[in-house]
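Q: What would this chain look like folded?
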Amino acid sequence: MFEAFELRGRLLYRDLSAADLTSAQKRYLVEEILSNEQVSIAEVSRRYNLKRTTVQDWKKTLQVTGFLQDGKGRPGTVDAEAIRELHTELGKRKLEQRPADEGQVIDLVTDYAHQTSDRQGRIIDDPSSKTVKMIVRSIGATKKKPQIVSNARFKAGSDPRMAYSMWIMALACTKNIPKQMIWNWDATTFIVTVNGKGKLVVTVKLEDDLRPVSLVCDETLDIFIKWMHMGSASGQAIPFVVVVAIAAMKPDEFKVFEIPGLSYSAVPGTVGYLCFTQTRAGNAKFFNWFIKTVAIPTVVNTRSFHGSTSRAFASCDGEAMFLDEIFSVETRELLRQSNIDLGKIPASCSGILQPSDVSPLFKAAKTKLRSMLVKHLIAENPIVESHIMTAIDQLQQELKITVGSEHKKKIAHGAISVAHAVQEVLRPRLIEDGFRLCGQYPLNFENLMRQSYATLTPDLLETMRAAQDGDVDFFLQHGQLTEEQMTRSGIPVFDAERGVPRDQSVLHHQRAVLLTHDATRDRRAEYINCGLELEPVAVDQTMSKDEADQRKKDIKMLGTLQKRDQKKAQEAERIAGLTAEELAAEKEAKKQRLTANREKRAQDLTDTKLRLNIA
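A: My prediction, written as structure tokens:
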């Protein structure tokens, strides 16, 4: 039999409780019970003033897990080290744009739980789903619906030169400009669900009927409405403008109607603009109308209202159809007379560098729309509905097309719903937040760079700060930062494998560019002359539609042939630099790839025949 004083030194064994025993002391007691028949659970409980059930739990835990912890209670599923690693891993996945879903979180917590048990020398089962939720909640993690980012956008956003070029343009064009003169425009599409879709229905289960419950709709299930938004860093916005597609219209046809009451303003007498084109993307005539009738007058009137004489700066994304209109002689002259500079956001970066996209406004409006009941809104807006119906009737008469009565109702319901949703959420603060988060007003280098997906080290950020003054001068002189200039400034190359450098690509693929700069106009003219970019046909009034279409095809074919010849020349140059051994190895590798592909196709054919029971 063991001696009590071996466990507790010179103290009497009734002086301490179970909470004071270490794991080693507990193990000693249980092992004595297991190895010595003369020592029972009751004897140990009596001598050391312990509950019998407590000693029984120790015995069971040691036999099952081989581990006993200090103090009372069971050991935690994960320890402090595992908690830190879990928090770090979830944060890392967020920065890398690959957040963990619920299944992956369960796997992560399970792995960290087993790592914890290994460190503690015990064996455990996988944690339950309830335990996983408690652990996830304890580190402040929440479930959110992610925004889907295409691979092209993620790759562009991971290029540090994209964010840096945007910073230089903002610094060059908006420094010392009042916030009322800093603008951005963008568009977002609302999906307006028709009545019946998305509602719960009452049904019964039929024997031998496994088909899902369906609801037949005679027409298109959804109406897509494009909202053109333009806001300033001071929280101002243009009038309400939406674009609706009518498939019966011709590609070059455009109609716009002023609709009283179709607005996000509560002021009586305000109007909104309901635009119709063949597709919701708009066309050249729509963009011409938008720039001359809405965008430029809004900026000019704002300048006059505030008594400012400052230049204005507006930014937008690089939609090719819009860029064609910007480079028309008439539009460029109107921008010059209005004292407005226009800049293009870096390609595929509008989601992280464009204030309208970064602002919570678009998301808030779409969330509001989903929560609304369209019938309820129509009951409150019969006059607006009648104005829209009248506009569509006029559209049919002028263009000699037919719009079905149900389609007309859907357009009216959708336009009113979008206007009401925007009216509910549009606040100056939301518009201002987009500029603040992008670091464009007030100018904030850290905020803008934080939007990038790139890994920006302190040394790289310091290099950017040191080079920005010289790069601003270069940008003001040339209308953009060339790849060569950024290399001289020490900004690393991200897409070295890219065939054509960004500054030599078509305009909508380039980084930040000042569109109203004369150098930008001259570069674009050179691209057009080389067949690398289509010239806006609308500029040549003597060209028929057939001639214009044929010219587009010829220019596209010329560009394709030039690119093919360029690739052939590069490949020939590469092969010429190979040694005989390298060339033989490359041929052998190509032969092996072809053989593997043939074998794979044969295996796929065999598998298909087996699935279809074909001999």
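The chain has a mean pLDDT of 81.
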